Amino acid sequence: MTDTDNLLPLKTKLNLETAKLKWKELELFFAKGNLLVVSTRRDLIEVAAQIAENKKDEIETLILNKDIEFAGPQWVKTNCQNNPDLWTVVVAPYVVCQLTKTVN
What domain of life does the native source organism fall in (predicted)? Predict the structure, then answer.
């Protein structure tokens, strides 16, 4: 990390740290219970920033609206059989991910 990294706004830093990974690369985080899934209705970076800033009320609303959840066996069975690409960003101790949106 350089001195300039400390000057960047949080959302910019998170955006720069975002990567597209295959499901197989995330299985270990799922097994450890550290994989959070963000609904495609929401902006991954915005949600990750709320987690990083510990915005309890906003996170609670996301959970109640099912816009964020821990990846569970049913989610994996439904979404990961074909080793899909997921957008990911680390907000320690979690890996926050989102299925890539397909354009038809």
Answer: Bacteria
Number of domains in the chain: 1
Full-model pTM:
0.89
User: Is residue 54 in some structural domain?
Assistant: yes
Tell me the DSSP string of the chain. --GGGGGS-HHHHHHHT-EEEEGGGTHHHHHHT-EEEE-TTS-HHHHHHHHHTT-HHHHHHHHHTTSEEE--HHHHHHH-TT--EEEEEEETTEEEEEEPPPP-
Reported as a single tens digit per residue, the pLDDT across 59-96 is 999 999 999 999 999 999 999 999 999 999 999 999 99
Kindly state whether residue 34 falls inside one of the protein's structural domains: yes
Tokens representing 41 are 């209705």
Q: Are 52 and 91 in contact (CB under 8 A)?
A: yes
